[in-house]
Amino acid sequence: MAGSEPIVLYDGTCGLCHRSVQWILRHERDHDLKFAPLQGATAAALRSRFPEIPETLESVVLVDGDRARLRSKAFLHGARHLRAPWRWSYALRWLPSVVLDLGYRVIAKVRYRIWGRAELCDLPSPENRARFLP
Known about the structure:
The protein has one domain (about 5-125). The model has no long low-confidence stretch (mean pLDDT about 85). The protein is α+β, with helices and mostly antiparallel strands. The chain has a 4-stranded mixed β-sheet, sandwiched between helices. The protein is globular. The chain has helices at about 15-25, 40-50, 70-80, 95-115, and strands spanning about 5-10, 35, 60-65, 65-70.
């Protein structure tokens, strides 16, 4: 399994999630993030340590150190790994989740209708292959 690197857990069948992971790969600053589908073995193993990781697929999760952050907080805390200007959204992490997650939940409900399902899995480039966990 993974070491202490931050791991982004995402819905492996969601078209929006797939595009989001590709976007993160293009805009990362430090290349520290690892990625794993919520449907996979890595997420299953992490659930024993972090029971707040949902079994359902409507949430993105950032596991970093001893914390698992869900939904909008996962994005905001993950932003510190991005290049400017995207990294600046990390400053918004202090906003209440209740407010930020309203928009997140609306998008989560319609994501399959708008962005579809990821029918095929793109193979990561050789330099990124080790960053994708089962």
